[in-house]
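During the second year of the project, the team shifted from modelling isolated chains to modelling whole assemblies. The rationale, set out in the original proposal, was that interfaces cannot be judged from single-chain predictions alone. As a representative example for this report, we include one of the complexes processed in the last quarter. Its constituent sequences, exactly as entered into the pipeline, are reproduced here:
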Amino acid sequence: MYVIVVGGGKVGYYLTKTLSQEGHEVLLIERDPRRVAQLSEELGELVMFGYGDEMRTLEQAGAARADAIVAVTGGDEDNLVICQIAQKRFKTPRIIARVNYPKNRILFEKFGIEHVVSSTEAILMMIEQQIPSAHLIPLAALKQGNLEIVEVDLDASSPVVGKSLAEISLPEGSCVVSIIRAGRAIVPHGDTKLEEGDTVITLVESSKEAQMRQTFIPR
Amino acid sequence: MHIVILGCGRTGSTLARLLVQQGHSVAIIDKNRDAFRRYLGPSFRGTMIVGLGIDQDVLKRAGIEKADAFLALAGGDNTNLTAAQIVKTWFSVPRILSRVHDPLRADAYREMGINTFCTTDLVVGMLMDFIQDRPWERKTIEYLSQPVRPEVEF
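Output from the structure prediction step:
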């Protein structure tokens, strides 16, 4: 594959390096000459000085034969225009944009840029997963699709404390995999009673996570 | 008329002052508060809004929903083109125009249905007229008379 990356910040740099190591042909376009000099020391010929939003630069970079163009500059307007030019003028088959402000994602989608990545959103999501105050911690999203392993800490206020698993109505498409009690993992049965201080490990469809939250956590 | 202008540089601010002077309602958006202080000053009777022109909430605060015209005159071509597309897509403003310095980009977006005017083409045309002894100053002189000049205290 021939991939053109526009924007030589951290994202552009690592992307170029990784793609090149994986055996792809890559060209990184950067508009700051000092940054170009810096990047060239490591990436050599893979770096080109130029304005990636100018058609002439893209043409020189061989946009017409590129399999993909990835716009990862720090400016959302710049990324949008780069993608639109690639799409309309060069008919590039795959176009990927980075969105810096999550609020702008809708623009890219509305204007037909199919693949949008937002590091801000990704980081936010990771932070949300780390916040224990929510009581409910997604441990992992299972690779093949829509299932998540979710951990719930029960305190005295939880409406399920004192009940057996059979008495709790779990959302459809979910189950309790294990209960961690006093540092030991239990394989639970229907008659296993939940206690204060238990950590309940559940397997749940991602779309049911909110319902799961309602089951275990007091409002 | 209510007119929303993006970009309080020399062009945006001069146009804003001219429009207010002619009795129109004007809201001008710039990401930098200092731009208003520098180009418009405290006597300006339009609305000045600090914010990004590609933010729909900022555009709404500028009254885009009832605007008769939107003029994108920010420094960057991409900002103007993005803002114009947003206004065209989400709001029904009868007149939308973007300033674009890069002639190729101006053409490309014109083809995509975004109204653009290219400063490079305009100025080059004017200079060609000047060189060939044709009238070249157009209407600028009659519009940009004293009253719309920034107030400067000497």
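The longest helix of chain A spans residues 76-89. The interface with chain B takes residues 53-56, 75-78, 80-81, 84-85, 88-89, 103-104, 107, 110-111 of chain A (CB under 8 Å).
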